[in-house]
């Protein structure tokens, strides 16, 4: 899942070398913290949050079998 988020994020930003994903896992959920260059935050979020919502939908759909809640946080 981490690789999927990295591929999507690196395709969208101007500074792909500064994209980082950290994973925090507990018994009920998995949190993916996506960190990008401050100038690229708008590109990851998108107009009205459309890109962020689409990314979260793809990640959630891909992790249905895990039985855990998946959260994607975007940081700069």
TrEMBL record:
The keyword Ribosomal protein does not apply. The keyword Cell wall biogenesis/degradation applies. InterPro entries: KH_dom-like_a/b, KH_sf_prok-type, KhpA. Its main location: cytoplasm. It is found in: Cytoplasm. It comes from the Bacteria. Keywords: Cell shape, Cell wall biogenesis/degradation, Chaperone, Cytoplasm, RNA-binding. SUPFAM superfamilies: Prokaryotic type KH domain (KH-domain type II). Belongs to the KhpA RNA-binding protein family. Forms a complex with KhpB. PANTHER family: RNA-BINDING PROTEIN KHPA, UPF0109 PROTEIN SCO5592. A probable RNA chaperone. Forms a complex with KhpB which binds to cellular RNA and controls its expression. Plays a role in peptidoglycan (PG) homeostasis and cell length regulation. This is RNA-binding protein KhpA.
């Amino acid at each position: 899942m981490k690789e999927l988020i990295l591929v999507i994020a690196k395709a969208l930003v101007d500074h792909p070398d500064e994209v980082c994903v950290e994973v925090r896992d507990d018994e009920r959920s998995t949190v993916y913290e996506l960190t990008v260059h401050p100038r690229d935050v708008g590109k990851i979020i998108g107009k009205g949050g459309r890109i962020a919502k689409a990314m979260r939908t793809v990640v959630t759909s891909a992790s249905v079998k895990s039985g855990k809640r998946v959260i994607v946080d975007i940081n700069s």
